[in-house]
Amino acid sequence: MNSVNSTPAQSSGVVIVTGGSRGIGHAISSLLAREGHAVAINYAANAAPAEELARTITASGGRALAIRADVSKPEEIHALFERAAELGPLAGLVNNAGITGTKVRIDEQTAETLDTLFNINVRATMLAAGEAVRRMSTRHGGKGGVIVNLSSVAARLGGLPGLVPYAATKAAVETFTRGLANEVAHEGIRVNAVAPGLTATDMVSPETAKLAETVVPMGRVGHVDEIAQAVAFLLSPASSYMTGSVMTVSGGR
Ligand code: NAP
Question: Which residue range or ranges hold the Ketoreductase domain (predicted)?
Answer without folding.
Answer: 13-197
